[in-house]
Amino acid sequence: MTHVVFFLVPGVHVLDLAGPAQVFSTAAEFGHPYTLAYVAEQPQIPTAQGVPLVAALDWPELGPDDLIVVPGWRARTLAESPAVADASLRVLRDHHAGGGTVASVCAGAEVLGRAGLLDGRRCTTHHDVQDELALRHPRATVVRDVLFTADDRVITSAGIASGIDLALHLVATRHGPAAAARVARDMVVYARRNGHAQQSSAMFRHRSHLDDTVHRAQDIIDADFDRPLPLSALASAVGVSERTLTRLFGRATGLTPLRYQQTLRLERAQHLISQGTTVEAAARSVGFQDARMLRRLRTRTP
């Protein structure tokens, strides 16, 4: 069971907290082993939106697979941010030193900075306070105009709703892009990745549409992309004709169902090859009978 612990400070933004919490809660509903906890330095936390929150005062026992998230809060400047006790900062440092992951949303990066976890690492925060974060923590490298950054198990995200992107990235990293795409679809949000780079998986790139028939077809392909999937069976499974499915799929994604499946196979094979797998073994692993088709697809891809 993976603990996701949200460390709350007074004035916390509800969406900074609720967005990532919803991602991990939805992932848990789909069978991924997450349990959520909320810790603060006082039992009741006022939020920026006026909704009071109740939190535990004691931290659960944490291991390397667990995650601590610091949501942001309302303050005109980072210098005016709420005080955080040394004991809490020590928990963050010790968790990361023990192999765990720490993350922040929006102004929450300031707490990671106070804990020394931004030193020598890339990070980001809300655009209104990026310059101040850089001044307050000169050993950090503040990256502008991105949704989030990930550097040595320190994950930081930009303003407010970008916490959803951060959480989807972590779900994708741990459970694969298909799991993150399923969570995003259930939450009715776009499955996005870093703002400065192309989304690295077709399961993300081709999900930013609202056609439910195509999403259902993609769910099937995502789950079984390494197996033969005749167009007739795929169309029957989603309740339309082959011609209709091809038309809808092309309009929503710019690809045919077969080309989408091949793209997933190619990306998975490329990953395996980068990890040391031979081309032949990678080809078989993703469903090709031999390496010839994989080599042709790799040649076509820029």
From TrEMBL:
GO terms for molecular function: DNA-binding transcription factor activity; sequence-specific DNA binding. It comes from the Bacteria. The keyword Transcription applies. Keywords: Transcription, Transcription regulation. It comes from Streptomyces shenzhenensis. InterPro entries: Class_I_gatase-like, DJ-1/PfpI, Homeodomain-like_sf, HTH_AraC, INH-QAR. This is AraC family transcriptional regulator. CDD domains: GATase1_AraC_1. Pfam families: DJ-1_PfpI, HTH_18.
